[in-house]
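Need tokens for this chain, all 270 residues.
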Amino acid sequence: MSLNNGHTIPRLGLGTWPLTDAEVAPVIVTAVELGYRHIDTAAKYGNETGVGRGIRDCGLRREELFVTTKLDGTYQGNDKAIAGLDASLARLGLDYVDLLLMHWPLPARDLYVSTWRTFEKLLAEGKARSIGVSNFKPAHLERLWAETDVVPAVNQIQINPYIPRGDQRAYNAEHGIVTTSWSPLGQGNTLLAEPLITGLAEKYAKTPGQIVLRWHLDLGLVAIPKSATPSRLRENLDVFDFSLATAEVEALSALDQGPGVGVDSDVSGH
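Here are the structure tokens for all 270 residues:
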């Protein structure tokens, strides 16, 4: 998928939270063997060293992988993001990341605009090929338009059929921002047991998880499901040989459980 700065991002990636350094390295090797080319981590996850080991062990050239990391509130304000990204790059063993995200806006601290200006510097220096945000609402993005120069390439937010966030997705799309879904399969097994989803899985000879991932793709989103199991990694990637009907996508979106179900980044974050 094309980003607003000319780079591209793979539609399906490997989420790595909450895998440890020791757990994540072999998972990345397996995932790459299966065809994954997009790896998502964060300073807060505490596994960037393991992610870097997996990247080195997988045997691919650096330019064949798309690597995302995120800087949390520890690195907001006073150019702290410069040291934060340098530390992440050292742990990853990389010269640059393909995508650097501000992990949360933390609006009560009122530092995300100044931190974004630092992200712009890191972009100009080439330490990040693209910069974006995570868990930003339209109101947070409006301040970035007004006070900075670079439009975020990506906004990574919590999305699944229970939490479709249609207004936020539409706002991102209107402004040329790619939406990436974190926790795309929901949390726990409740979502995947929905009769609508299990019925579609039977219709398409797919698993419930594959139906939900296809919903993300049919909405034009990027998704980063997490798994450490080879069979599930393979299953999650096997979603490009079918599409859902428009009415089916709409029916899945109608599983929306309403406001208050997902995280609220005006009051949540780290």
